[in-house]
Design brief:
This protein has about 675 residues and is mainly alpha-helical. It has 29 helices and four strands. It has three domains: about 10-135, no CATH class; about 145-190 and about 215-245; about 265-670, no CATH class. It has helices spanning about 20-25, 30-40, 60, 100-105, 110, 145-190, 200-205, 215-225, 235-240, 245-255, 265-290, 295-300, 305-310, 315-335, 345-370, 380-395, 415-425, 430-435, 440-465, 480-485, 490-505, 515-525, 540-570, 575-580, 585-590, 590-605, 615-655, 655-660, 660-670, and strands at about 55, 65-75, 90-95, 135. Helix 14 packs parallel to helix 17 (about 415-425).
Length: about 675
C-alpha cells in the first residue's frame, strides 16, 4: 500500500557521505526507508522477452523529503537472452539528496543488491552510456533563469497585442457601422414625395432595421473617410491590427479561400500527409523513448499491414514534391503576369520572413519553456533534447543542421526544413533556364536528378545500408543510413525536382490511376519482403537495397504526379472531390505549424510517462488521435500568434503590391 506521508530524511544523514546515507536508508526499518525501497525498481514480468525498464515509482520517491529519484542505465547482454533487438536496462532508485550521479556510480553494488540472483544473467555491467550513465531528477531540472522570464514576458506581450488588436478591430467595425447608419439618416432627412404629396416613409422605416453591413458600403466608408467623419488608421493601429486575434482566426477558418483554385486537391494531400507523418512518429518516438515490450517490434514491424506505418517517411517526400511543384507553378504564373520579371530579393526575403519567425519561436519554446512541461523517470531525455536547441539553435536558423550529427540536432524532425530551404535557395538555377528555354531548364534539372541518384545509390551500395524502416533506428546497419542518406538534401532532391518540372509543363502524362496506384503501393509495401524470420536484419541483397533506396522516391513522385494532374484536368472523380473538400482548407494552412509542433507533443507524452509504457496498436492509436488534435490546436494558436501577424507586418513593410505575390505566399504555406 502507498503510504501518503512525507517524512524528512535530512536530519538523519547530516554529516554522512553518500555511501553511509545509502546504508542508513537500506538497513533502517523506518517509514521513510520502507517507502524508499518500495519506490525502487523491481524485476517486472516479461524480462526474458525484453522488458528492460525497471523504473520503480517516481512520484512516491519524490514525495519523500530528503530523497530524490535517479535512474541507472546498464548494458544488457541481449544475445544471452535470445533477443533480437539491442536493449538497455533502466533501473530506478530512490536515494538521499546527498548522493550525486558520480556517487551513485560508485555505489551501484549496494543499490542493486535487491535484484534476485537468478536475474544476474542480464549481466549488469558498466553503464552503457559513459556520458549519462546515471540521471538524477529534481523538479524543476532547469532553474527559472533570465531566459525563462524573458520568453514568458515575450509571450505575454504577444497575448496583449492579440487582445488589443481584437478590441481595436471591433471598435473600428462599430465606428464604420455607425458611420453608415448616420449616412443613411442624413440622406433620408430630405423628404421624398409621391404623387399624392405625402412623405414616403419606406426609407424611414428601414432605419430601424439592423441591416448587415454590405461589402460595397464598407468599401465606400474606407475609401471616403472624410464623407463619414472617419480617418485612415495610423501606422501604429495597422501594426496592432496585424495581431488582432479575431481577424487572424477568421482568415484561418475561411473555407472560401482557395475553392476557386485549380489545384484544390493539394489541401487534402497536405492534411493527409502531415497526419501520416504524425502516425509514424507516434510509433517511432515510443520506441525511442523506451517501451516495456520491445518484442512487439519484432512481431509487428515486419507484418504486411504495418508497412504503411513503418514507411510513413514517404509522406515527407510528398511535401518535397508539393514544395517543388508550387514553387515552379506559382512562380511562373506570377512571371507571366509581370512580363517575365521577378524581384529575386523579395523572392528570398518573403520565404525567410514567412518561415523563420515561427521556427525561431518554437526553438525558443524548446529552450526556455518546454523543460517545465513535465517530469518523470524519463524526463531527463526531454531535458537533453531541449539542451541541444540551446547549444545548436544557430544551425537550425541557418538551415544547415543536416550537415552535423543527427544525434545533436535541435528538433530532430527539422531536417526537412533545412533540406527544403536549401532546395529553395538553389531553385533559380532551374527557374531561370526554364524561363528562357524549356529544354535548357529540363536539362539542368535532369543533371541534378541523375547526380542525386548516382550519389544515393553509391552510398547505399558502398556502405551496405539497409533501406527498410528498421535502418532508420540506427541499430542494424554498419553505417548510419539516417545520417548518410535519409536526411541529406542530395538524396531527397529528386522528388523536389520532379515537382518543379511538373509544375512547369502541366501536361497530361501517359500514366493512369492503375499505374499510379501500383507505383505507390510498391514503394510502401515492397519492404515487407526485406524482413527476415529470425532477426530484423534486412534480408535484401545489397543490390536490391541500392535499387529500392535509389528509385523508391522516383516511383512515389510519379504516383503523386498522376494524382495531381488527373485532379487538375478533371479526371480525379470522387478522389478530387474528396481532396478538394473545403474541410481541408483551414487544416491545410496549419501544416507548417503542425509539422513543427507535432513531434514536441508526442515526445512530451512519452518522456513524461510516469511508468514503463506498454506499446500496443490500440494504445498507440489513441495516443495518435489525441496527439493530432493537440498538435493542430497548438498549431492554430502558433499561426494566429506568430505566423499571421508576421504576414501582416510584411504587407505593411513591402506595401500592397507585394501582398499580391501569390506565388511566394502559397510556397510559404505548402508545408
Amino acid at each position: 500500500m502507498y503510504i501518503n506521508k512525507q517524512v524528512n530524511f535530512d536530519h538523519k544523514i547530516d554529516g554522512m557521505d553518500c555511501k553511509e546515507a545509502i546504508i542508513q536508508l537500506l538497513r533502517n526499518d523506518t517509514t521513510t526507508s520502507i517507502q524508499a525501497l518500495d519506490a525502487f525498481g523491481k524485476v517486472p514480468a516479461g524480462v526474458l522477452v525484453g522488458n528492460s525498464e525497471w523504473l520503480g515509482d517516481y512520484h512516491e520517491c519524490t514525495s519523500l523529503q530528503g530523497l530524490h529519484y535517479c535512474s541507472i542505465n546498464f548494458g544488457v547482454n541481449s544475445s544471452s537472452l535470445g533477443l533480437r533487438v539491442p536493449l538497455q536496462l533502466m533501473y530506478g532508485v530512490c536515494v538521499p539528496n546527498v548522493c550525486s550521479e558520480d556517487d551513485i556510480i560508485r555505489n551501484i553494488d549496494n543499490l542493486t543488491q535487491f535484484i534476485p540472483t537468478k536475474y544476474r544473467l542480464l549481466d549488469l555491467v558498466a553503464p552503457i552510456n559513459a556520458d549519462t550513465p546515471v540521471n538524477c531528477q529534481d523538479f524543476p531540472q532547469r532553474p527559472y533563469d533570465a531566459g525563462f522570464i524573458c520568453f514568458t514576458v515575450f509571450c505575454l506581450i504577444l497575448a496583449i497585442l492579440m487582445l488589443s488588436g481584437a478590441v481595436l478591430d471591433v471598435f473600428q467595425k462599430y465606428k464604420k457601422r455607425k458611420m453608415i447608419n448616420d449616412s443613411k439618416l442624413r440622406s433620408s432627412s430630405y423628404p421624398s414625395y409621391g404623387s399624392t404629396g405625402e412623405t414616403n416613409n419606406a426609407a424611414d422605416a428601414s432605419l430601424g432595421q439592423n441591416e448587415p453591413l454590405m461589402d460595397h458600403e464598407a468599401k465606400n466608408v474606407e475609401s471616403n473617410p472624410s464623407e463619414t467623419g472617419g480617418s485612415k488608421p495610423g501606422m501604429l493601429q495597422e501594426v496592432l491590427l496585424c495581431f488582432a486575434f479575431n481577424r487572424n482566426l477568421s482568415k484561418l477558418l475561411d473555407t472560401t479561400v482557395g475553392q476557386s483554385q485549380s489545384i484544390g486537391c493539394l489541401h487534402g494531400i497536405r492534411v493527409i500527409s502531415i497526419t501520416w507523418v504524425a502516425l509514424g512518429h507516434t510509433f517511432g518516438f515510443s520506441v525511442m523513448s523506451g517501451i516495456e515490450n520491445p518484442d512487439l517490434i519484432v512481431n509487428t514491424l515486419p507484418s504486411f499491414f504495418f508497412q504503411a506505418v513503418g514507411n510513413a517517411y514517404s509522406a515527407v517526400d510528398t511535401f518535397f514534391f508539393m514544395s517543388g511543384f508550387l514553387l515552379c507553378y506559382l512562380t511562373f504564373t506570377r512571371m507571366t503576369k509581370s512580363d517575365g520579371k521577378i524581384s529575386w530579393l523579395l523572392f528570398y526575403f518573403h520565404r525567410i520572413w514567412r518561415i523563420t519567425p515561427l521556427y525561431a519561436f518554437v526553438i525558443l519554446f524548446m529552450i526556455y519553456h518546454h523543460p517545465y512541461f513535465g517530469d518523470g523517470p524519463k524526463w531527463y531525455k526531454a531535458i537533453h533534447f531541449d539542451s541541444l536547441c540551446e547549444q545548436y539553435w544557430w544551425r537550425n536558423l541557418l538551415y544547415i543542421n543536416t550537415y552535423f550529427p543527427q544525434a545533436d540536432m535541435c528538433i530532430q524532425w527539422s531536417w526537412y526544413l533545412s533540406c527544403d530551404m536549401q532546395f529553395f535557395i538553389i531553385s533559380p538555377l532551374i527557374l531561370l533556364p526554364l524561363s528562357r528555354s524549356q529544354n535548357a531548364g529540363i536539362l539542368v534539372a535532369s543533371v541534378m536528378f541523375l547526380a542525386s541518384l548516382v550519389v544515393t545509390g553509391s552510398l547505399i551500395g558502398k556502405n551496405h545500408l539497409a533501406t527498410n524502416s528498421v535502418s532508420l533506428q540506427n541499430g542494424f546497419s554498419a553505417t548510419n543510413y539516417l545520417e548518410l542518406v535519409y536526411i541529406q538534401p542530395y538524396s531527397r532532391i529528386p522528388t523536389y525536382l520532379i515537382g518543379m518540372i511538373m509544375g512547369y509543363i502541366r501536361i497530361i502524362v501517359s500514366v493512369g490511376w492503375a499505374l499510379a496506384f501500383a507505383a505507390g503501393i510498391s514503394v510502401i509495401y515492397s519492404t515487407y519482403t526485406s524482413y527476415g524470420n529470425v532477426t530484423l536484419q534486412s534480408e535484401w541483397s545489397n543490390a536490391v537495397n541500392v535499387l529500392y533506396g535509389t528509385f523508391s522516391r522516383l516511383g512515389w513522385s510519379l504516383a503523386l504526379c498522376w494524382v495531381v494532374l488527373a485532379c487538375y484536368y478533371g479526371y480525379g472523380g470522387w478522389i478530387n472531390d474528396f481532396l478538394c473538400w473545403s474541410f481541408w482548407i483551414p487544416l491545410s494552412r496549419l501544416t507548417f505549424s503542425a509539422y513543427l509542433i507535432h513531434g514536441v507533443v508526442i515526445q512530451t507524452y512519452y518522456q513524461a510517462y510516469p511508468t514503463s509504457y506498454h506499446m500496443s496498436v490500440m494504445s498507440s492509436s489513441y495516443i495518435f488521435c489525441g496527439s493530432v488534435m493537440i498538435s493542430y490546436a497548438s498549431a492554430g494558436l502558433l499561426s494566429i500568434a506568430v505566423e499571421y501577424p508576421c504576414a501582416g507586418l510584411e504587407k505593411l513593410i513591402l506595401g500592397h503590391e507585394s501582398s499580391k505575390a501569390k506565388c511566394d505566399e502559397e510556397v510559404s504555406r505548402r508545408k
